[in-house]
Amino acid sequence: MQLKAEPEMAGKVVRCPGCNTKLQIPGDIATLAGLPSPSNLPPPSSGGDGTGTASAPEQSYESTFEAARQQRGGWEETDPCNPNPWVALAIGAVATAAWYGLMFALGHGNYLHDMFIERTWVNYAESFFFFWAIGILWLKGQKLRHQKTALYLDVLPVEIGTEINNENVASFIDNLYALPARLRDSMMVNRIRKGLELFEVRQNNGEVANMMGAQSNIDGARIGGSYSLLKVFLWAIPILGFIGTVMGLSSAIGSINLNTEDMGEIMGSIGKVTSGLGTAFDTTLLGLVLAMLLNFPMNAVVKAEDDNLNNIDAFCNEILLPRLNDGGGIAGGDTGGMMDTLVKAVANAQKEFLVDLNALSKNVKEQVENLDKRAAAHQERVDTEFANALNRMREDMTNAIKDSVKTTTDYTRALSSGIQSLNNVLAQLGEKQVIIHQVKKKGWFSKD
Q1: Is the dihedral of CA 158, 159, 161, 164 positive or negative?
Q2: Buried b (16+ CB within 10 A) or exposed e, 116-129
Q3: What single DSSP character describes residue 317?
Q4: Contacts 24+ apart (CB under 8 A), 26-34
Q5: Going by DSSP bridges, is the β-strand pair 31-33/2-4 parallel, antiparallel, or unpaired?
Q6: What is the pLDDT of residues 366-404, one digit of tens each?
Q7: pTM higher than 0.70 for the full model?
């Protein structure tokens, strides 16, 4: 198994994360090759320019990785950040029992003994929740240590190839399957395996990058959700302290006896009041102190898990993705790959153009249909207005002609009646003699 080591670690003795064996890092290299196990040896050089430095295996590389290929399909992944709550419950119960055994050993009269043992059931519940939360944090620390240990694995050895392409991606995947089962079940190895298997099928760097980003979000959400029970404990412990405060105050107030003149009874009730007040304040004090003590390690584990997730993201973005080569960056003799890339680019551009053209055609068709509807509605309105105007004009002309005919008829009747009257007068005059006398005009100086 190949391991990675920083240059400043050269010459130091470390433990192998795979089998916990002590190893000394060579002083002239930063990559350690140790543990010559036949099933864990890296494959031979396939496209790279380096050679392995492990001991000779007892079986061929071909048979080793042929067996690994037959086991393709991933492996059962354990939860990387959610510990078993029942195991944590057992740890909390044992720790609580040990702590209270120590408190009993202190004896009556000791402040810690009285606080944890003499102050109702609330302090027992607070202590149990506190140690249960500590058990969860301890188990999460073990899982985090396992995740950090997996970061030392050389999951992408340069002996297989300096870049990852469609020819050697299977060898890189087989190298992951050949890692020890305890170490390959980690967030980093699982994410890299999923990315390489997607690259093997799709041959597209963009899809691998998108999948890596989505997987990072999933891991972040999983880590955040693993603190749900701890947040409940962090909320419940001080709440229990306040409940104990209310109980202590209630007990203190209820024990006051002022209906007696016996000083002994009065002093006894005052003692009960003091005991109730002690319970009230001690339960709140214990709850706040335990919540504060729990908050520090919980936030430390949160930060450590976030840093570990950031390291995994940085490795995928800075080491894995730059080494992926889907043929899109070829600029040399591989004209076939370049032509495939150009064909894909043109096909994608044509597809986008057709989609945009279909959308534009749909919009134009909708505009034409709307224009036809508006023209038809306008023509219908014009026809209606013209017909109404014509009807009004015809009615006005008809009424005017009727009025003129009526007026003419009345005038004709009146004229006919006048002519008839004139004829009658003329007829009467024709039967009589009319004498006309001339009257002499008188002058200014006449005598008459």
Answers
A1: negative
A2: beebbebbebbbbb
A3: I
A4: 30/4, 30/5, 30/6, 31/2, 31/3, 31/4, 31/5, 31/154, 32/2, 32/3, 32/4, 32/5, 33/2, 33/3, 34/1, 34/3
A5: antiparallel
A6: 888 888 888 888 888 888 888 888 888 888 888 888 888
A7: no
For residue 287, the one-letter residue type is: G
pLDDT score for 94: 94
**Pair type for strands 22-24 and 13-15:** antiparallel
pLDDT at 133 over 90: yes
Least confident of 56-60, 138-142, 221-225: 56-60
264 is written with which tokens? 């002994």
One-letter amino acid for residue 90 of the chain: A
Per the document, the length of the chain is 448
Task: Please report how many Cα atoms fall inside a 13 Å half-sphere around the Cα of residue 134, on the Cβ side.
Answer: 18
Mean pLDDT of 51-65: 41
Give the alpha-carbon dihedral of 397, 400, 406, 408, to 10 degrees: -100
Beta-ladder partners of 13: 24
Phi-psi region of 35 (alpha: psi -120 to 50; beta: other; left: phi over 0): left
**What amino acid occupies position 357?**
L
User: Cβ(337)–Cβ(330) under 8 Å?
Assistant: yes
The answer on pLDDT for 329 being more than 60 is: no
More confident call, 153 vs 92 = 92
